[in-house]
Amino acid sequence: NAGVTQTPKFQVLKTGQSMTLQCAQDMNHEYMSWYRQDPGMGLRLIHYSVGAGITDQGEVPNGYNVSRSTTEDFPLRLLSAAPSQTSVYFCASSYSTGGKSPLHFGNGTRLTVT
Amino acid sequence: GQQVMQIPQYQHVQEGEDFTTYCNSSTTLSNIQWYKQRPGGHPVFLIQLVKSGEVKKQKRLTFQFGEAKKNSSLHITATQTTDVGTYFCAGPGDGGSQGNLIFGKGTKLSVKP
Q1: pLDDT at B95
Q2: How far is A106 from chain B (nearest CA, A)?
């Protein structure tokens, strides 16, 4: 019962570097999403997907790309890291779309951009 | 745009005291969900409320959904140190957000033994 698996747990990048945060789920959930969490800001939606081949932007999508080639995987790409992207990133999945069912979160990736 | 607001932002209590956090949405919600995040951890789903006026209990935790389905509360009776963490409410966004969950900023609870 792995649930939602995120890698890496920690990452330090220099400004301008690119990287991919990995997210995989084994629950056959159609809906997957990425949130970032900053102090005092709660959880803000970056990108989401309602199924393989379908992605869309959330509240704070700038500087990030996603793709959904399979039901299981939903990687988040930082194109050119900036200090403002220092944050904790959570991947989450749910059985149904539209906020009708609970989100299952991964353990998070703590990213620091210097 | 649609907002989900939580108060208070922080709450410090003595172990054994009660705790309540309140959640208000700018729009009517089809359901509201509550999550708990322990320090250094990830949000974990606690409960979902769907019906107007619904009340659900989980041991010392009582969850309520307002009659107008725009507000909710979480009440913890006789807090314990294991209750420490941040409690988030979340509701589906309006049509423009395709129903993605919008989270409140959370209430951070600390419990002094």
Answers
A1: 60
A2: 7
